[in-house]
Design brief:
The protein is α+β, with helices and mostly antiparallel strands. The chain has a domain of about 120 residues: ApbE-like domains (T-fold, Roll). Helices cover about 30% and strands about 30% of the residues. A hairpin with a 4-residue loop joins strand 16 and strand 17. Helix 2 runs antiparallel to helix 6 and helix 7 packs antiparallel against helix 8. The termini are far apart. One of its GO terms (molecular function) is transferase activity.
Length: about 325
């Protein structure tokens, strides 16, 4: 018997599942049949676990850790690693060097030297702010060779891919679920980097994405309504710690190789591609509102942003017609 689209939709329903991987919370909502839900859940779980094993800087046996131990040497890499490094290289150029994966030494020297939940916190947490500012220049780059599937990291520079790999994993998985597995509707969210397609219930509604209030924990400041596309949020507040030198956070400014001192606390970017959204949300946080908005507007098309500053201001970049927020947001 051949099942019609109407019959298939009649059997499909919404399912959700959550778990932790890649040092963040992963959640998936899919609209599928009962027969599809178990293999879909397994695929989502296995994919993010595999991405963590390959790209985590906290796992000594990961491919990323292997590359960081062999700086200054040409190394063969997996197809997945080469794909991510080529994307990183292209975004470094696009953002005029502000997106920079070769910042691991600066992260470690600022105190982020182990998984965040294991870190010490408090004013007596001693760190050494000795990041080599001579490395903050145009020569700090990864050399890739696509035909050889090889990479060369600069001597004494170490790489962190936390600023790109979660959204890459979300984008890849969302594509597979739609094209290879035929899921007409779904959302994949990795710690605030999320992609949606179709309708959340197979009907006519839109996905409603809550934007966290940076000044009031566990409160939503507004809602983005999407029927497709992506959203990513970056913040100085989520991974922040106290040290003897004051508060530190994980968003490193490659011009100083120190945590950014810009006026932006949090930035949400929405558009078609979750990778693009993640990169630009971080770049705006690092550069600050005025400089970040100027570069974002110059370099992107079809993307919009919501920016929260240390002064309590909220700025829109673009019309953001699908955003519903408080009266103080303009």
């Amino acid at each position: 018997m051949v099942m019609t689209t109407q019959d298939h939709q009649a059997k499909a329903q919404s399912y959700s599942f959550r778990f932790r991987a890649m040092n963040t919370e992963i959640e998936a909502f899919v609209f599928c049949t009962e027969e599809q839900v178990a293999p879909t859940q397994r695929l989502v779980f296995d994919w993010f676990q595999a991405a963590e094993r390959r790209f985590s800087r906290f796992l000594p046996a990961s491919e990323l850790s292997y590359l960081n131990r062999l700086t200054g040497q040409t190394c063969l890499v997996s197809e997945a690693m080469l794909e991510v490094l080529l994307l990183a290289e292209s975004y470094t150029r696009l953002t005029e060097g502000i997106f920079q994966p070769l910042i691991l030494k600066a992260l470690e020297q600022s105190g982020y030297n182990q998984s965040f939940e294991l870190m010490e916190h408090g004013p007596n947490y001693r760190i050494q702010l000795t990041a080599d500012r001579t490395q903050a220049n145009d020569d700090l780059r990864i050399v890739t060779n696509s035909s050889m599937k090889s990479v060369l990291l600069p001597t004494d520079a170490k790489m962190d891919l936390g600023g790109i790999v979660k959204s890459w994993a979300v984008k890849r998985l969302a594509g597979w679920l739609q094209k290879q597995h035929g899921l007409q509707s779904g959302m994949i969210n990795a710690g605030g980097d999320l992609a949606v397609w179709g309708r959340p219930d197979g009907g006519s509604g839109a996905w409603r994405i809550g934007i966290e209030n940076p000044w009031k924990a566990d409160q939503v400041i507004g809602i983005l309504a999407l029927d497709h596309g992506a959203v990513a949020t970056s913040s100085k507040l989520g991974r922040q710690w106290d040290t003897e030198h004051g508060k530190m956070h994980h968003l490193i400014d490659p011009r100083s190789m120190r945590p950014s001192e810009s006026d932006v606390l949090q930035c949400t970017v929405t558009g078609e591609d979750v990778l693009e959204c993640e990169i630009w949300s971080k770049v705006i946080c690092i550069l600050g509102y005025e400089e970040g908005a100027a570069l974002f507007t110059k370099k992107t098309s079809g993307y919009e942003a919501l920016v929260f500053t240390e002064k309590g201001e909220v700025h829109k970049i673009g019309e953001l017609e699908n955003f519903q927020g408080g009266d103080n947001i303009g």
